[in-house]
Amino acid sequence: MPRSDYLFTSESVAEGHPDKVCDRISDSIVDAYLAADPSARVAAETLATTNRIVIAGEIRGPASITVARIEEIAREAVREIGYEQAGFHWEKAEVEVLLHAQSPDIAQGVDAAGNKDEGAGDQGIMFGFACTETPALMPAPIQLAHDILREMARARHAGEAPHFGPDAKSQITLRYVDGMPVCATSIVVSTQHAPDLGQDEVRELVRPYVLRALPEGWMCPETEFYVNPTGKFVIGGPDSDTGLTGRKIIVDTYGGAAPHGGGAFSGKDPSKVDRSAAYGARYLAKNVVAAGLAERCLIQLSYAIGVSKPLSVYVDTGCTSELDTVRLSAALRELMDLSPRGIREHLGLSRPIYARTAAYGHFGREPEPDGGFSWERTDLVDELRAAFG
């Protein structure tokens, strides 16, 4: 039986974190290619350090996306995040673009041809998860950690909190009783700040955003509320730590509350099942929980490069459902084509909707009118309820 009383911790990082800067640039490049050609292939990796951005990877897309355009995209992403500091400035950083054509060996396995359907862009395993801990059907620790930083960033962009810099991290530990979260036992927030502020001042500036994110009565003891524990955080972003695309995969997903297959999302077009199948698995898991068929649902999908069908579909409801998971797995495969093409078409993934996913999590967000976060829809609920009475 699973443990019912325990402490669990998750962390989030803000859009100005060095790795998230890189995720944002990479996803902005994906969006540019998909806007020009929905069938474009993109695998763009970004490295950022002191006033230098390096973009490398493989692409297949229209010639209208030039090196100059990619450099412009990178600078615009950094500008929108808010970096205008001496060691990392959107206008002054040197940008090097090293993208090259996609390997024909990969292309022949992925592309549809004759009677062959579109194959997976790589081998691997992908997980989706949902639970009843929050209205978004996400684990509470990661959702609350995101909420703190998202609200701080909103205030910074709105000019309400000019004392905050773009770089920040949050971490929250929740106490679980009978398997559900009841309060926070410790909270850590580290945020880049104006040089004239002391640690105590930053602590009080951060406090309202933490209280706003938490349910009433959930605040941790004062001795367990840590803000900038090292005392000072003025130099931030890639000027303080080198950033790379795809290094925050646990932040991007479930905060460690569910397994992860190991593949990053950012910088990849939806032919890459690292991204699209993880979205598809979350979509199915969320619909199972939203339909009231289980309180928790974990789904694993596996693929082989060039093969269109999933090799396996595993469903685990963690002792929160009396349904036969074999039957549930079969029902889910009936409701959604889990081939790479099927997932992409069902969720409308061949659109420029990815830059917005680069910070504050890919899951637990609101579906948007233009198709953004389509994997958060719960439009299978009625069919699932009908299938299982």
What does this structure look like?
By secondary structure, the protein is α+β, with helices and mostly antiparallel strands. Helices cover 31% and strands 24% of the residues. The protein contains ten helices and 13 strands. Strands 1-8-9-10 form a four-stranded mixed β-sheet. It has a four-stranded mixed β-sheet with strand order 6-3-2-11, covered by helices on one side. A hairpin with a 2-residue loop joins strand 2 and strand 3. The chain is flat and about 60 Å long. The relative contact order is 0.18.
Write the topology of this structure:
Elements: E1 6-13, H1 18-36, E2 41-49, E3 52-60, H2 67-81, E4 84-85, E5 88-89, E6 94-101, H3 104-110, E7 124-131, H4 140-157, E8 164-177, E9 180-193, H5 199-213, E10 225-227, E11 243-244, H6 249-252, H7 273-290, E12 296-303, E13 312-316, H8 325-335, H9 340-347, H10 381-387
Parallel strand pairs: 3-6, 9-10
Antiparallel strand pairs: 1-8, 2-3, 2-11, 4-5, 7-12, 8-9, 12-13
Helix pairs in contact: 1-2, 4-5, 7-9
| Helix-and-strand structural type | alpha+beta
Task: Summarize the biggest pleated sheet.
Answer: 4 strands, mixed
Any idea what the shape is? flat
Task: Give me the side-by-side strand order of the main sheet.
Answer: 1-8-9-10
Count helical runs.
10
Could you give the count of β-strands?
13
Strand content: 15-25%
Sequence of secondary-structure elements: EHEEHEEEHEHEEHEEHHEEHHH
Helix content: 25-40%
Q: Specify Rg, calculated over alpha carbons.
A: 21 Å
Low-confidence stretches: none
What gap, in angstroms, lies between the N and C termini?
A: 27 Å
Q: Overall pLDDT, averaged?
A: 94
